Amino acid sequence: MTAETNLIGDAVKLLRTAAALSMSDLAKICPVSKPYIGRIENGLNNPTREVVQALDSALGAGGLLLALSCEKDPMRRRSLLAAIAAGAGEFSRLVDGITQAPPGRVGLSDLEAVGQAVEFATQLDLRNGGGAAAGPGRSVLGWAVRLLDASMTDDVRRRLSSQVGALADRVAWSHYDAGRDKDARDIYGVALRIAREGADSNLTAHILLDASTREAHNHRYDTAATLLHNSALDQRELLQSVRANVTMTYARHIACMGKTREALDQTERAFDAASEFEPDDVPAWSKGFLSNPAHLDSVAARPYLFAGEYDRAIAGFEAALSRLGEGRDRGRAYALSLLGLAYLRGGYADRATATARLLLDVPEGLKSMRVAGHARSLSLELARIGQRDEAASVKAVAERINPAA
């Protein structure tokens, strides 16, 4: 097997090493033996599609590994490996023949590679949290931004700007979730600038939504609400799925400002509208999260929680948890934390205690500042009602998943 045809082996090794997994570790979470993984990495075996798919899932490659194995064109294969290698933080060292200088001309294969990188960064963040995704995501972003300096047609530039803007948004979000606030702020600025060059109003609105969430986390609720109201809320061309997401997030901000009635009205209208779109009626860059009804269930439950409508918040978080599938470890832990708070504030102490126990099963690899913060709040409120053992256990989980710990 030549060096060119062993790109799949190189990619497996890159992703495994970046995830700090030994071959034995990988064999435990993937139905492939340690010796067989070694043969793949050394170019001695050409794995089947089923094996590659299992490795892709186990390594959190978001489809990049599978796409690489299916691609026949040498240049497109190199582009895909570039995205994988960048994500693993090994771009210039391990991708032979590819440097940090931009290519002479960007085409459709590069667009596809950036699209795969968006999925890679999204899936890594959704599963493991920003503490795990920020570093690899930033490496991928550096590679993708350099593509914008190359020569290309106007149509490719517009589409590439949208793809790179979406990637920058995911990387900014990962930095925010990792507790790296200044980096998140700066990268959101990059994301907005690039997305606007792509004339993608849905993406621009979503970046503003994410940036407003960062402002709200810092208790700047008025700034967060203004960011959405003045720049995204009333854009007519938004897809229904994006509009619902933006409106519910705006409702959460104003609920935290004490505008309870308006927040509830906004949430109810947005939730009704959300029921009218199909899961596939979402932008390509959002399919990893917005196509899942669980996402909007959770987003809608938050303004209810902060507006004091605890039974409705409980219903939303319970619905979200019932719909969250594999690869959404961060979303599940986030919903459990807020569900526990909703139970407590709604007067359901026994249910809150049972929910707190479920948090103890949060995967070891999860690193999320947002989840850690809500888990700490749940711990404090459990302690106030005398549930000291559960409070201590949840506090330990919060410390374990805090990226700054």
Task: Write a brief structural summary.
This protein is an all-alpha fold and 405 residues long.
Helicity, as a percent range: over 70%
Task: Kindly identify the CATH topology of one domain.
Answer: 434 Repressor (Amino-terminal Domain)
Ranges where pLDDT stays below 50 over 5 or more residues in a row are 90-100
Name of the top-level CATH class of one domain:
Mainly Alpha
Strand content: under 5%
Structural class: mainly alpha
H-E order: HHHHHHHHHHHHHHHHHHHHH
Radius of gyration: 22 Å
State the separation between the terminal residues, measured CA to CA. 44 Å
| Strand segment count | 0
Taken from the alpha-carbon principal axes, the silhouette is globular
CATH superfamily placement of one domain? lambda repressor-like DNA-binding domains
- Major sheet: size, sense and barrel closure? none
Instruction: Average the pLDDT over all residues and give the rounded result.
Output: 87
Protein traits:
71% helix; 434 Repressor (Amino-terminal Domain); mainly alpha; single chain; 405 residues; globular
Please explain how this structure is put together.
The protein has a domain of 71 residues: lambda repressor-like DNA-binding domains (434 Repressor (Amino-terminal Domain)). With 405 residues, it is mostly helical. The termini are far apart.
